[in-house]
Amino acid sequence: MSAQALAAPLPFLAIDDAARLSRTQAREDDREAIEACQRGDREAFDRLVERYQRDVYRLCYRYVNNHHDASDLAQEAFLKAYRAIGRFRGDSAFSTWLYRIAVNTCLNFRSSRRLPSEPLEDDVPDAAKGVADRIEQDELSQQVREAVSRLPEKQRATLILKIYHDLTHEQVAAIMGSTVGTVKANLFHALGNLRKAMTGSKTGD
Amino acid sequence: MWTHVSDETLMDVVEGAAGDRALGHVATCERCRARVDEARAALGLTVRAALPEPAPIFWDVMRRRIAQRLAEVPPARSRRPLWAAAAVAGAAMVVLATGVGISPTVETPRHATAALPAWSALPPADQDPGLPVLENIAPTMAAVSPSVECPDLAECVAGLSDDESRALADALRERIAQGRTL
To answer: So where are chain B's domains?
Structure first.
């Protein structure tokens, strides 16, 4: 492979201007809701829940790989955020702060329960697409999710935040309380371990 | 001596953000190129691993559950910086000093109840200019609100909402206007 080919950016890692504008607007909306929360307005927090519940739930799901625990952890993360919102100073984006709470909630998760995965799919497979293909894809997705959920904790959190939540290295570093260099190294190790796990090798830190 | 590039730099290569030197190395180093290829293959797998999407009603259920649990939690309040609380209390002292001896109708200083920035950081106690002021007005606070248990005056004033701060200032002005001793 040539150096030129190696230098080509991966398309799904690019952030376009529209997304940046959208984030700026979201940040302003967040600021208004947070200030209302800090004045004791509970309904304002509901707006934040509505805005972020999907992201927080999915982050938790990636971490524990089952719906039941992910739902519990997401709720717990929001409760912690509400209790602490009076101390939120706006040094970072609210989403960064909230993700940090969610990641810490997941990292502290020590459940004796080991429930099987509980997918709640609401769409019916299209027979025309081929049921066999669909099943194969579902199985692959499940294998990857399981492999991700078995990664060492920091690698797992780093990979989930970077790949599935489209955060920058700087944002992930802020959430993880580490440096950008450490985030990149953790991500690289996570990908290496994921690849090994998918091909049947052992994972390690 | 032949040295490989760091994992951090290899991640830059995977993301297409590496410099020429790193790219040149990876292009000629079989070991590093293999690691980059593995990482890219894993990246391809991760983006194909969709999550099972909950039924749409799940999001409403989760919001309701969170709202129910929040109802058991005291309302969130921002922690007001002590210097700001001291500004309110200090303004009350100005009202006291001018109002008691000079006139029963006292103009309220506008800065006394100015809105406080919600994003302000709380300064460390040893750098907070408001604390000495607060200590000085402790007797006044106790006289105005004798029924309120407030072992730590600074904490108590810092925790007041805007409405509570205004009520405190109003109470002080009212007593001054009545010519009562505080």
So the answer is: 7-48, 82-177
